[in-house]
Design a protein that fits this description.
The complex is a heterodimer of chains A (about 350) and B (about 325). By secondary structure, chain A is of the alpha+beta class. Chain A has helices at about 1-10, 15-45, 50-55, 135-140, 145-175, 180-190, 195-210, 215-220, 230-240, 245-250, 255-265, 270-285, 290-295, 305-315, 320-340, 340-345; strands spanning about 65, 70, 75-85, 85-95, 100-105, 115, 125, 125-130, 345-350. In chain A, strands 2, 3, 4, 5, 6 and 7 form a six-stranded antiparallel beta sheet that branches. In chain A, strand 2 (about 70) and strand 3 (about 75-85) form a beta hairpin. The longest helix of chain A is centred in the N-terminal third of the chain and has 34 residues, at about 15-45. Chain A is elongated and about 100 Å long. The two termini of chain A are about 55 Å apart. Chain B has helices at about 10, 25-60, 80-85, 90-120, 125-135, 140-150, 160-170, 185-195, 200-210, 215-225, 230-255, 260-265, 280-290, 295-320, and strands at about 1-5, 60-65, 75. Chain B contains 14 helices and three strands. The two termini of chain B are about 30 Å apart. Chain B is about 65% helix and about 0% strand. A two-stranded antiparallel ribbon of chain B has the order 2-3. With about 325 residues, chain B is an all-alpha fold. Chain B is flat, with a radius of gyration of 25 Å. The chains are: A alpha+beta (about 350), B mainly alpha (about 325).
């Protein structure tokens, strides 16, 4: 069989084979992507469901509500009733033990229809019901505006500090002869993989002593002292800038600080933007630091910690939890779509000791 | 974007020694400016890394609660003795952490590699759109990711179980079904799935690695009659090993500090059956729930020692399996 199949494949033209490969690989990708994004579709669908649907067994997967029919000022539940070999949507008018009376919502004037059987065994009719206002409810219940303000403030300030300090340090490492520079640089790189826990307790204790626990300061201040990853990245970029301009400026008597601020920084805008974006979303995601330093101060929580607290309080309101989770993802995803080139470009940096 | 330092230099070369001699006036000036530029890092390193690290070791010798610092008591190596020989939970939580890493790291690596190879193929139409879409969930805050997956993996109403049931007819929902987050045998796989939504960065790093492989190698292999699988095993994988190595180091160190998902989902209770009380969760409990910070510092130092051992072992094995193309200098 295998040989029989292979032979014609080989005789196919190259173009035909490419087409077949394309169809197979593209559909494989689409299939995997479909699986990959199921939770997203689930989240969106669940977020707009009614509260009742969440607790109901036998509810459909899409956002829906049970259909009712209003007749002469009263509401009647609509069921799927098997009558005369077909299933009809009928409103339960007079429930009975052995038989019940139903109305046809299409034609109620025709009078009640009698149906033999137990109405409790019947299934309900569901109609589409999208509760967009769940997003508003979630927004208000978590006090999202406050969380958002906190997160943006925190992420904004630390990004500024992190980028500025990393640029300074990276320029120092890139351009100046400093004794022991390579050792210092290796130490800096090794701090990247240092488990944060090992410095946490004394740091926490000192911050507690000076009254900073319960404020944003323990989270913001360290960001102004540069982080290894950012420095590494910017240093690589600075090394790629030709020295000509700097040398010319130096001959004109410009100080290194002046050269840094009016030549290097403007020329490094792409690298600075990339580092800033990465740091911003790192801060947006930060959980452990705010959890420890802001414990007991819900008014200062960022989104991540606020969302966790919300999940603990409203664990039964699946729809609201999904809605709140999606709201928290909106800004990062929008920024991502606008700046995706920066995220999707692998910056390959080779050779540490350049 | 991703950073991929080529660690070959760090592995191979020692640090160039410069001969000591008198510095000229100009060199002194340059040095002063240089030190000024790197001073934020030097201060930060001393204040937020070196001194706290040393102090942390000091703390580990005390019985210490920050609420009552006056009652701190020097107890020598009693905390260390407790952590290493008496407290079974230390080793249990460490074992769980390793167990989880042994499941989640290979799965997420293979998935990232699979995606990278797929999306690097010219035969996938519209691959740049797929790159965007596969990366997108990486941008969702991890807490939200965990909560969304918590819903979709719900044993009753979660779509994963509903879909499995519809497609295969196996009864997946309900108490006898696949209880992803409540069954000790499944929970690590569930947590691994959360992680797959963060595949973006690893995927991009692998993609960049793939694009760095010279095309001639594949052409030559094709002329020699190598098929798709042979090219994968003998060209692609070996040339990706530097990138895999770098990701492995970060992945292992990251796993050691795995904390968020168990904390968000069950407040670090370890549900189910203590399976999710990982080392970092236990460290958090001791330090910030019971506030026994002397013992917490001991656990933190233990974590550092373990991380160092793992890193040294990984770097030691690197020369047997990590393949560097750059010439020896």
């Amino acid at each position: 069989m295998v040989h029989a199949q292979r032979a014609p494949l080989r005789t196919l033209s190259k173009r035909a084979r490419t087409t077949i490969t394309r169809i197979i690989l593209t559909s494989l990708t689409l299939f995997v992507l479909g699986l990959f994004l199921i939770p997203m579709v689930y989240g969106i669908t669940t977020a707009v469901k009614t509260d009742n649907q969440i607790s109901e067994t036998g509810a459909p997967w899409w956002p829906a509500t049970k259909k009712t029919f209003e007749y002469e000022g009263k509401r009647y539940d609509v069921y799927l009733v098997p009558i005369d070999g077909e299933i009809r949507e009928l409103a339960l008018y007079r429930p009975g033990r052995q038989s019940s009376l139903f109305l046809d919502p299409e034609n109620p004037e025709a009078g009640p229809i009698e149906w033999q059987g137990q109405w409790r065994q019947l299934e309900r009719t569901w109609i589409l019901d999208i509760q967009w206002n769940n997003f508003e409810r979630a927004w208000n219940t978590v006090n999202f505006l406050n969380l958002l303000r906190n997160t943006i403030t925190y992420a904004g300030i630390t990004t500024f500090g992190a980028v500025l300090s990393a640029a300074l340090v990276a320029y120092g490492f890139a351009r100046f002869r400093i004794p022991g520079k390579q050792i210092l640089f290796m130490i800096m790189l090794s701090t990247v993989i240092l488990p944060g826990a090992v410095t946490l307790i004394p740091t926490y204790f000192v911050f507690l002593q000076i009254g900073w626990v319960g404020t944003w300061l323990p989270l913001i201040v360290p960001a102004f002292f540069s982080w290894g990853t950012n420095v590494f990245l910017l240093r690589q970029f600075f090394l790629s800038i030709p020295r000509d301009l700097e040398e010319a400026a130096m001959i004109d008597g410009a100080s290194p600080l002046r050269i840094f601020s009016s030549i290097i920084l403007p020329m490094s805008r792409p690298a600075l933007t990339a580092v800033a974006l990465f740091h911003f979303f790192w801060a947006w995601n930060d959980f452990f630091g705010p959890l420890i330093y802001l414990a007991g101060h819900p008014d200062k929580f960022p989104i991540t910690v606020g969302l966790t607290a919300f999940n603990n309080l409203y664990s039964q309101s699946t729809n609201l939890i999904q809605a709140a989770s999606l709201i928290s993802a909106v800004i990062p995803i929008i920024v991502f779509f606008f700046a995706q080139r920066i995220f999707l470009e692998g910056v390959v940096i080779s050779n540490l000791e350049k | 974007m991703a950073i991929i330092p080529d660690l070959s230099g760090a592995l191979r070369s020692g640090i160039n020694k410069t001969k000591r001699r008198k510095l000229s006036q100009l060199e002194k000036k340059e040095m002063r400016w240089g030190l000024m530029f790197i001073s934020p890092w030097i201060i930060g390193f001393l204040a937020f890394y070196l001194l706290p690290m040393i102090a942390s070791f000091g703390f580990s010798l005390y019985d210490f609660n920050p609420a009552v610092p006056d009652q701190a008591r020097f107890i020598g190596f009693a905390n260390w003795q407790r952590a290493l020989f008496q407290d079974a939970e230390v080793w249990l939580s460490l074992r769980r952490t390793i167990h989880f890493a042994a499941i989640s790291l290979p799965i997420s690596f293979l998935f990232a590699l699979f995606l990278a190879i797929l999306l690097n193929s010219e035969n996938v139409l519209g691959r740049s759109i797929y790159r965007t879409l596969f990366y997108m969930p990486t941008m969702i805050p991890l807490v939200a990711t965990v909560l969304i997956w918590n819903g979709v993996l719900n044993e009753q109403t979660g779509w994963i179980n509903v879909i499995i049931e519809r497609l295969t007819g196996i009864r997946a929902t309900g108490t006898q079904g696949l209880r992803w987050l409540a069954d000790p045998n499944l929970v690590y796989y569930a947590y691994t799935m959360f992680g797959l939504w963060g595949v973006g960065n690893t995927m991009i790093i692998f993609l960049a690695g793939l694009q760095g492989i010279p095309k001639e190698l594949y052409e030559a292999a094709e002329i020699d009659g190598a098929n798709w699988l042979q090219r994968l095993i003998f060209i692609t994988i070996p040339l990706l090993t530097p990138v895999i190595f770098y990701q492995l180091v970060l992945g292992v160190i990251g796993s050691l500090q795995y904390f968020l998902a168990p904390f968000v989902l069950n407040n670090g209770t370890g549900f189910p059956e203590g399976m999710t009380r990982f080392f970092m969760v236990y460290f958090y409990k001791q330090s910030f729930t019971f506030f026994s910070m002397g013992y917490g510092a001991t656990l933190a130092w233990l974590m550092l020692i373990i991380a160092m051992i793992i890193t040294i072992v990984l770097f030691g094995t690197a020369r047997y399996w990590v393949f560097y193309t750059t010439e020896e200098r």
